[in-house]
């Protein structure tokens, strides 16, 4: 009886191993639904680490490093999502470390593995070649930006563009431009836990589809809803907000004109008061403003500051 039990256990283990191998060769088999049963998290992490040791400059590996350091958190730092972001990049797609993932989640074949459809990484994740090209386009338009020295060529990116995801995030968070569009497609829904890449929730206006609205920086005369108005968080993203901004600017213009009129009247009164003041004796510090003149100069400063700002 005991011998039969041992034999049964051995057959069960052998069948399980065979089933695991079969899932990598045919992921459409009914017993391949949950990949964790035959491709556990530690094996997934090992494959990610191997891929990023070989291609550390890729955007998926940049995200992986941020997850490891705590700069990125949440569901997008889970192993299968990171595998999706790393191994769907054409730069790493053919590496040995991504082989198991691609066998289970083939692009043009049927699979029943639930992780392939349920844990798909960051939506519209920015791939390496796209990030590098966007960086080159941004720096061609404005070559003096401080981050341009971090990514100078698509050739030999291990040396010339070591972290394109971090570089383009720094530029586009500082001032959004048209070539930031691939980054915006990834960040517009403010994915949770990726504040180091996409900015902090609440820092940006949201449009009617709950997409973050980043102010654009265009180098020519233009119209549109994505311009900064006075502050970096005041960006009208919709028709309603644009109309509201126009009304606010109209009222601001009237207020500015009122301040100028008030200053003109005050200047007239101040000039009359200064004419009536007795002259200072020779040899004194007459070129310095007196107590009343200091007050006048302070008021002038306030008027100029407010009118120039508005």
Summarize the entry for a quick read.
Helices cover 53% and strands 1% of the residues. The chain is mainly α and 310 residues long.
Number of helices: 13
Which sequence of strands runs across the widest sheet? 1-2
CA distance, first residue to last residue: 92 Å
- Going by helix content, strand content and strand pairing, the class is mainly alpha
- What is the β-strand count? 2
Low-confidence stretches: 1-18
- Strand-residue fraction? under 5%
How much helicity do the residues have?
40-55%
The 3D shape can be described as elongated
What's the gyration radius in Å?
A: 31 Å
What series of H and E elements makes up the topology?
Answer: HHHHHHHHHHHEEHH
Largest sheet: 2 strands, antiparallel
Q: Give the overall pLDDT as a whole number.
A: 81
Q: What does the model show?
A:
By secondary structure, the protein is mainly alpha-helical. Helix content is 53%, strand content 1%. Strand 1 (205-206) and strand 2 form a beta hairpin. Helix 2 packs parallel to helix 4 (79-87) and helix 12 packs antiparallel against helix 13 (291-309). The chain is elongated. The N and C termini lie far apart (92 Å).
């Amino acid at each position: 009886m005991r011998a039969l039990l041992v034999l049964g256990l051995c057959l069960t283990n052998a069948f399980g191993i065979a089933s695991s191998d079969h899932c990598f060769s045919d992921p459409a088999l009914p017993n391949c639904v949950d990949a964790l049963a035959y491709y556990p998290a530690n094996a997934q992490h090992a494959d990610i680490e191997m891929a990023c040791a070989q291609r550390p400059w890729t955007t998926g590996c940049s995200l992986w490093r941020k997850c490891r350091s705590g700069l990125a958190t949440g569901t997008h730092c889970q192993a299968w999502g990171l595998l999706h972001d790393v191994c769907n990049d054409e730069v790493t797609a053919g590496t040995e470390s991504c082989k198991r993932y691609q066998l289970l989640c083939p692009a043009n074949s049927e699979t029943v593995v639930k992780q392939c459809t349920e844990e798909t990484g960051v939506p519209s994740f920015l791939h390496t070649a796209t990030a590098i090209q966007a960086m080159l386009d941004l720096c061609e338009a404005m070559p003096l930006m401080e981050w341009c020295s971090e990514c100078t060529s698509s050739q030999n990116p291990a040396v010339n563009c070591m972290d394109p995801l971090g570089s383009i995030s720094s530029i586009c968070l500082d001032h959004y431009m048209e070539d930031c569009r691939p980054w915006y497609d990834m960040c517009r829904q403010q994915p949770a836990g990726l504040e180091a890449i996409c900015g902090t929730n609440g820092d940006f206006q949201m449009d009617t589809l709950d997409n973050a609205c980043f102010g654009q920086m265009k180098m020519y005369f233009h119209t549109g809803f994505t311009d900064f108005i006075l502050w970096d968080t005041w960006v009208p993203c919709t028709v309603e907000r644009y109309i509201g901004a126009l009304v606010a600017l109209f009222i601001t213009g009237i207020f500015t004109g009122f301040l100028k009129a008030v200053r003109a009247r005050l200047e007239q009164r101040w000039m009359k008061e200064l004419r009536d003041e007795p002259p200072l004796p020779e040899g004194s510090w007459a070129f310095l403003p007196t107590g009343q003149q200091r007050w006048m100069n302070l008021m002038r400063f306030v008027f100029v500051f407010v009118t120039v700002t508005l």
